[in-house]
């Protein structure tokens, strides 16, 4: 390209130029990792070489995929429940003032409970199936949804509310015509956080007690000292996390195309 | 006019002239809690004739915005009485007699210009169909000179254009009075001038009564028929100035010697209004 005449950067060029440095760094890290393991002959129980992980990934592909599907289902289900409960809670807090004043401090208080520690209790209550995972994801992930939606609903400009009041708008009209749509950009930011937390919730839930899923594979493989498989499963978890995050990001673009970008990952 | 038929029982009809659309008598506003009570407005008497263009000008903190809110029915006066077209401001607002425009256009970013223009009307009149609302919104956008921007979202409009949509939104209610709180305060000088010209054209075409809060001397004189000067601590109307410049006024009005004289006169009034306290 001719440097003296600046040309508009195409979408593809912009994408590669923003991805390229990260991709190079990743590649360099993998190469150095492989080299270090070989040069210092580190035991594969401790740190498996990337090539070992790749081999394990291929060899155990069937198991891993099956576990991934299970975990993905938990994440998706738990995420949806978290978003629905989170939104409902925010709506109730805003619409019913007295109930809001009762609920909000308790919600914040509950936020200080280390929710990961609830996993064993949920297993005790709900068994080894899907329910305890959904419960755990819910308690971990609903909060950013509620909080971000509340912040969005409460940041409506006062003079806009004055305008609405001047034509006799009801609280319900103000809620659904103004507050809720106004909160969507902020809510979508909270939803992205909830998507990430849902992955954590599912894995922790599986650690605490499961017979399937990536968390189970990680735990099982580590008891077998199959560290390469642990890393392979970790890779799948990361892929899931990224997939859910970007799904939430695409959702954001669909729901609030009019909004200024809140955050850039 | 309705004024004669719907007069408030407790009002003081002897003071209400037939051609006054807005009348405030002895209005005071006290705000704050018991410990920290503040007299925001003291003993305001204001009469705005039907079809007039009246400006309220004064230093920051003189309560001119509060006065506008009282007229809009958004703030209840602690004492005194206000009537808009013969009824209380709150009732006038419910009857869609009051159109409000603030400094910030406050458009809904998820709606395009035409839907923003008809948004308040849609809430005030639930019987209107979507297409009727659209038609009304489009009509108002045409009136404010934004007919071609109907499908643009607020983030695609300039500050001046957004404020035009806000004016269209207020006009869509077909109010008797437009209450405007520094509507051009956030705009640059050039946009401000052209907005002022447009507002005068809209005023003359629609015959609305306009109460206009500003802190710009030039703007007040250029646009209004009468200017009320507010003083601080407490907020009160210290002096009033009639602007005898003939309409229609265009930008060249600022070059007339009479304009310059009025600017000097208003500036002197404003200076004396800065002294707190003082007899009304």
Task: Give the gist of this structure.
The complex is a heterodimer of chains A (265) and B (280). Chain A is mainly alpha-helical. Helices cover 78% and strands 0% of the residues of chain A.
Would you mind describing this structure in some detail?
- The complex is a heterodimer of chains A (265) and B (280).
- Chain A is an all-alpha fold and 265 residues long.
- Chain A folds into two domains: 8-41; 49-255, Orthogonal Bundle (MetI-like fold), CATH 1.10.3720.10.
- Chain A has helices spanning 11-39, 50-59, 61-95, 97-111, 119-126, 130-154, 158-166, 171-208, 214-223, 227-255.
- In chain A, helix 2 crosses helix 10, helix 3 packs antiparallel against helix 8 and helix 3 (61-95) packs across helix 9.
- Chain A is globular.
- Chain B has helices at 64-72, 89-94, 113-124, 130-143, 159-172, 189-206, 217-223, 257-273, and strands at residues 20-31, 38-49, 53-57, 79-84, 98-101, 177-181, 209-214, 226-231, 236-242.
- Chain B has a domain at 105-174.
- Chain B has a six-stranded mixed sheet, with helices on both faces.
- In chain B, 35% of the residues lie in helices and 22% in strands.
- Chain B is an alpha/beta fold and 280 residues long.
- The model of chain B is unreliable at 1-16 (pLDDT under 50).
- Chain B is globular and about 50 Å long.
- Classes of the chains: A mainly alpha (265), B alpha/beta (280).
- The A-B interface holds A 157, 159-160, 162-169, 173, 177-178, 181-182, 184, 256, 258-260 and B 69, 72-74, 93-94, 96, 98, 100, 102-104, 106, 108-110, 119-120, 123-124, 153, 155, 173.
- Chain A: Residues 64-248 form the ABC transmembrane type-1 domain.
- Chain A: One of its GO terms (biological process) is transmembrane transport.
- Chain A: It comes from Mesorhizobium muleiense.
- Chain A: The chain crosses the membrane at residues 20-41, 75-94, 106-128, 134-153, 187-208, 228-248.
- Chain A: This is NitT/TauT family transport system permease protein.
